[in-house]
């Protein structure tokens, strides 16, 4: 089990240190190698994704990433932007499946802006296609055209999916549903868009390979509404790149706590990059204030999806639940009456719970 560890910038090194401690506490044999990505890589080499990092990422089974970016690099030229490090890895490894769980632990029910009874116990997974759709479709552009007898600027994009792209993301979603509550909701806009009519047809075809999973379909506008009306009706949701971008951010906010949310981006070989959903939090970097749980939970996702170590993944997730039940809270999830701890102490608590 080869892991490429990329701490990155800002709070990245602090939260990564805790995730690495947790992984080392399991009785599993990992080979971990660390490399530079993002702003720290720009400082050291002038390149946000140095060749050595890319080679290490290619050679590993999984990549565990902290976060990249910060004000220090905001004025750098386009080709030295820290995010290029992440985008480069996604592209090079063809990480087409983005998995974002939104889990609200009962202890954190007050962190959400929604009523506790709507969100307490929420546990859903959004599977978003990451390398196709209108974000990458050709042709695209802005140009002057003759419209109504006058020359105007016109902008256009192409929403396009090939059958194999839809099929492979649906398989990932069905497989994820098999490991969870065996219910999958496929989100489309088939009443208006041919691309998503094809999506729905293929979802029905692929469902024949997974007879144990109950497949439902929902139009995206209704899905957006249902996510805030009654989010607990969902188990796994699967959708295209654009709808998934919007719905996964909406779902993450149901939990109200960015410091708790992991993510995975997988390719066809179940190789993946695992990272917290939040950024590098420059405002609290280097102060031992950051919540390491999103990164620790990302490591659990890595064990589940790349290494097929479901028991170890659940051990980590149970340890996280336990520390929350014991009242340990970093600043982002603190409420009066709980125990405020720093990044390292939160790591200590998870290790003790393990
Ligand atoms: P952010 O997620 O870094 O921070 C937003 C707010 O949440 C801040 O107040 C921060 O202190 C807090 N926060 C984030 N993670 C936390 C944690 N683990 N524990 C406690 N509090 C936490 O987003 P922001 O401020 O928009 O971006 C900061 C930098 O991060 C930018 O340079 C941005 O480009 C980069 N970024 C990187 C991402 C990545 O590496 N995947 C994703 C999003 C932003
Ligand atoms: Mg987004």
From TrEMBL:
The keyword Magnesium applies. It is found in: Cytoplasm. SMART domains: Iso_dh (SM01329). Keywords: Amino-acid biosynthesis, Branched-chain amino acid biosynthesis, Cytoplasm, Leucine biosynthesis, Magnesium, Manganese, Metal-binding, NAD, Oxidoreductase. NAD(+) binds at residues 70-83, 279-291. Binds 1 Mg(2+) or Mn(2+) ion per subunit. Pathway: Amino-acid biosynthesis; L-leucine biosynthesis; L-leucine from 3-methyl-2-oxobutanoate: step 3/4. It comes from the Bacteria. Its main location: cytoplasm. Belongs to the isocitrate and isopropylmalate dehydrogenases family. LeuB type 1 subfamily. Homodimer. This is 3-isopropylmalate dehydrogenase. The gene is leuB.
